Amino acid sequence: MIFNGPIIRPTTDADSVFIELTAGCTHNGCTFCNFYDGVPLRVAPLSEVEANLKEVAQKNPNAKKVWASGGNPYALSTEKLAERAKLIKKHLPEGHISTYARVDDLNRKTVDDMRHLKELGFGELVIGVESLDDEVLAHVNKGYTVADIVEGFQKLEDAGVDYRVIYMGGLAGQGKVVDSAKKSAEILNKLHPYMMFLTPLDIEPGTPLAAEVKSGTFKPVERKELLQEYKTLFSELHNPMIVYTTTSHYSRPFTAKIPEHKEQVIRMLDEEILSIG
């Protein structure tokens, strides 16, 4: 197998077949992220993609889940994605393709493009929005606005493409996260991701955000305030959604459905908040 970049994927996709379509991230400018530092932007040629698929097909021809690896492979043109989807279908006919996308990738495609790619196998996307608060998005240089998120997600929904979002707790900073959670929930209630990954901010060494922490211009939240942010988010969310926190960063990992488990999770968060004092 040929990989030119790191394999970064959600925990829920660990059992997928990994096929690299791109390496690096087209934006690579978020102030909290160093995942793709030193990884040149690269598109895997069709010959390389097919060689990897042939190798996988020899061992696992009935693979059901394919993770198209790269920072945001959905940035490729519809034509290039279609070519790669057809190759995947040829060698792994039962494979359902999931991959990362940025919001600006969505807004460069039409609903018809998305629908066409879904028919070829790109039926699910994972988008790291991190926040749905314009002030936070601007501060961490996400490269798009809440209005862009709404536009892109509505196009996905019109095309019938399933999508998951990543929400990063603590990203607004000390004293701001509860208000930011309310803003994010208000927008999410207008949209329909079927899953949200809830993950806390890690201050990665060497990032611009780490420099802000060092200078005192950004103050990370303490545990109690992070839990208050999560509680606010759960309290405000109404649309059906799975919330997944099962990562190494969370002391009491859980998978919960909204609205079925909403009150149960809020009680659990209240208990944790009270235990901190």
Summarize the structure in words.
The chain is of the alpha/beta class and 277 residues long. 40% of the residues lie in helices and 18% in strands. The protein contains ten helices and ten strands. The protein has an eight-stranded mixed sheet.
Ordered list of secondary-structure elements with their pairings:
Blueprint: E1 17-20, E2 22-23, E3 42-43, H1 46-59, E4 65-69, H2 78-91, E5 96-101, H3 103-106, H4 111-120, E6 122-130, H5 134-139, H6 146-159, E7 162-169, H7 177-188, E8 195-200, H8 208-215, H9 223-236, E9 241-244, E10 255-258, H10 262-276
The topology string of helices and strands comes to EEEHEHEHHEHHEHEHHEEH
Number of strands: 10
Cα-to-Cα separation, first versus last residue: 51 Å
Shape: globular
What are the salient characteristics of this protein?
10 helices; globular; alpha/beta; 277 residues
Short description:
By secondary structure, this protein is of the alpha/beta class.
